[in-house]
Amino acid sequence: MVAVRKVKSYGGVMGISERKERQRAELREQILRVAREMVVKEGFGALSMRKLADAVEYAPATLYLHFENRDAIARELCVRGFGEFLAALEPGARVKDPLERLMAMAAAYVRFGLEHPETYRLIFLEDARLSTELFRDAPDGAGPRSFALLAGVFEDLKAAGRLAEDASPTRLAEVTWAGLHGIVSLKLTCAAFQETTAEELQASLVETLVYGLPGLKGEKPARARR
Amino acid sequence: MVAVRKVKSYGGVMGISERKERQRAELREQILRVAREMVVKEGFGALSMRKLADAVEYAPATLYLHFENRDAIARELCVRGFGEFLAALEPGARVKDPLERLMAMAAAYVRFGLEHPETYRLIFLEDARLSTELFRDAPDGAGPRSFALLAGVFEDLKAAGRLAEDASPTRLAEVTWAGLHGIVSLKLTCAAFQETTAEELQASLVETLVYGLPGLKGEKPARARR
DNA sequence: GTCTATAGGCTGATAGAC
DNA sequence: GTCTATCAGCCTATAGAC
């Protein structure tokens, strides 16, 4: 963004205050950039005001002129993390056919989680208060919009008459989301299941959710297929 | 456990050392009991040697006579947590019919996670190194055995000829596990999806995994139903 | 705006007296 | 075995000089 001069020559009062404003915003941005780097490299717990100040080559006290406290930095990083997450889902969400779209979005979800583990951690695993706040207090934020993209799959299926009358798109979206989240977070926090890669698990999850257990035979309980 | 006397009268050397041994074990047990309480109440991060020492009314240094360091306490708590988890799954695992068993175990899994959030956190969400170690280095530990119980559902289905020839019980178990883990961990770390309770999500997850999307119509991609 | 200096916490862990 | 005392380090946040 280029500064707009408010007086004709040499800048002047407005020019100076604008430059200051710009420099201030730049420093703020730099702090966030470096903070993000630290979180991505060493995890969220390793983000400390001292180390951050060192890294941007300012005194710790200076950080407090730009952010109220450490939490404010974390919150900002979290907001941006949700933005990146949404951006990662969007290409897949443009696929026409709902089932293909579901597969594409699921793949994008898992890929994002594996490629940006610390970002994923930050927004979904780190601080319950933070992510809950961001979901609840910003209905138009990137978090809710990401969920809406996924819910769209099931809404479209239902609108096309391809789902049962009493099927709940929201609930199906939540179940799918939970499944994907489970795959990613098991890989991130407990790499216990070595037998199957996350991508394979994701493919199996979607396929099984859509079509049921492969080749299932036998009597079905009364309340099934509702 | 009642002490067995090795000499006939008044106790004697062996009796004294046994009493000491017993007292030592009792203190160790008390430390773990209090540590568990602290973790359950305030979270794993809040477990500090000083506060723990305060709570058991010993000096901090005393703890180090019973545990090498803080990690050793965490590891012990984790092992016991897996034990509790396994115990929670076992009743459901005794159900005869595989599909009913799946439902019972899924319900038990989610119930355990919601009723013992801090234990669940400790064993599945807290420290990747810790739980991974416990899974990998103790193939007969409670963690792997829990997974084996779940895998049994799909092995039994396949053995009964109720699944496709090329279906992988292990993979289906991993997918199911991931789904359940996702439900619990979303509730614990990001209570964003308020619309549906964890129990409802769990029921929908199992039903959808077993039978597919409710009333799905439309052409299926070639590779489906494999 | 930026600095130095520091307050006032917390932490895990240990040396050495008793 | 248990204690006191303490080391050595981390942390967030702020007061006050420049």
CATH-defined architecture of the largest domain in chain A? Orthogonal Bundle
End-to-end Cα distance of chain A = 56 Å
- The helix/strand series of chain A, from N terminus to C terminus, equals HHHHHHHHHH
Which fold does the CATH topology of the largest domain in chain A refer to?
Answer: Tetracycline Repressor, domain 2
How much of the sequence lies in strands of chain A comes to under 5%
Give an account of the 3D structure.
2 copies of one chain form a homodimer. The first copy, chain A, has 226 residues and is mainly α. Chain A has 2 domains: 1-67, Homeodomain-like (Arc Repressor Mutant, subunit A, Orthogonal Bundle), CATH 1.10.10.60; 74-226, Tetracycline Repressor, domain 2 (Orthogonal Bundle), CATH 1.10.357. Helix content of chain A is 69%, strand content 0%. The first copy, chain A, has 10 helices and no strands. Chain A has helices spanning 13-42, 49-56, 60-63, 70-93, 98-115, 117-126, 128-137, 142-159, 169-189, 198-211. In chain A, helix 5 crosses helix 6 (117-126) and helix 5 (98-115) runs antiparallel to helix 8. Chain A is elongated and about 80 Å long. Chain A starts with 12 loop residues before the first helix and ends in a 15-residue tail after the last helix. The mean pLDDT of chain A is 90. At the A-B interface, helix 6, helix 7, helix 8, helix 9 and helix 10 of A face helix 6, helix 7, helix 8, helix 9 and helix 10 of B. Chain A binds a DNA duplex (18 and 18 nucleotides) through helix 3.
